[in-house]
Amino acid sequence: MLKKLEAIIFDLDGVITDTAEYHFLAWKKLGEELGIPFDREFNETLKGISRMDSLERILELGNRNNEFTTEQKLELAERKNKHYVELIKDITPANLLPGVEKFLQQIKQANLKISMASASKNALMVAEALGVKHYFDHIVNAATVTNSKPDPEVFLKAAAAINAKPENCIGIEDAAAGVNAIQSAGMFAVGIGDRNVLGHAHIVLKSTEELDLKSLCSEYVNN
Ligand code: BG6
Ligand code: MG
To answer: How far apart are CA 187 and CA 93, in angstroms?
Structure first.
């Protein structure tokens, strides 16, 4: 049976721009304020995870998850977000990862749809600051998503909003949980980054520089 490609669905942080690094720095700062230091290896487990779920994981790491009320946890999450917003305040189109805009243009020229499935409540603001919002037919509002990646919810919402069938979509992710979410949604998964972390994706590219619609389509059709 011939496979039909309808849409490409992007994660944001770590795929379109390097904000994954800023999320790391902001959480690390909060962690240090709480006496819970952590390294990049632990940070891998936070990638793609919602703000509140990330906080829970950090508190759990420090054995402190029973010390705070829900209200206090919301305050801590807000504090992290302030650190994060401070770090991203000067973002411009120069912060797009290499090859991303060329790839977005290729998708548009091929008349395919483009949607965004980010867990970040800052996604719209970041897409605007990067000057790429106009490429997207839809950007899921993370506040409407109940279940964090690896649950497929955000990818299914991203596809439904543009009337694309999940099996006709390619999802692109830099996080292990995100690749799982794409696969549970029944989509073709492209991982960007380390093969040791993302080896469960259909294909793994080292960097966004390798994103090319023609070669991606042939991988998609043959897999
Ligand atoms: C994801 C990031 O895209 O968004 C996570 O990979 C982040 O690191 C999550 O925690 C939530 O982002 P925000 O901006 O809503 O705190
Ligand atoms: Mg990401």
So the answer is: 29
pLDDT at position 2 over 90: no
Alpha helices in the chain (DSSP H): 19-33, 40-44, 51-61, 70-88, 100-109, 123-130, 153-160, 176-184, 195-198, 213-222
What's the CA gap between 61 and 38, in Å, rounded? 9
Q: How many angstroms separate the CA atoms of 62 and 96, rounded?
A: 34
pLDDT tens digits, residue range 185-208? 999 999 999 999 999 999 999 999
Structural domains of the chain sorted by starting position, each given as residue range(s) with its CATH number in brackets: 7-17+93-222 (3.40.50.1000), 20-90 (1.10.150.240)
Rounded to the nearest angstrom, the distance between the alpha carbon of 3 and the centre of ligand 1 is 32
pLDDT in the model for residue 118: 98
pTM of the model: 0.95
Rounded distance from Cα 51 to ligand 1 centre (Å): 6
11: annotated active-site residue:
yes
Q: Specify whether the CB–CB gap between 133 and 127 falls below 8 A.
A: yes
Ligand nearest to the CA of 124: 1
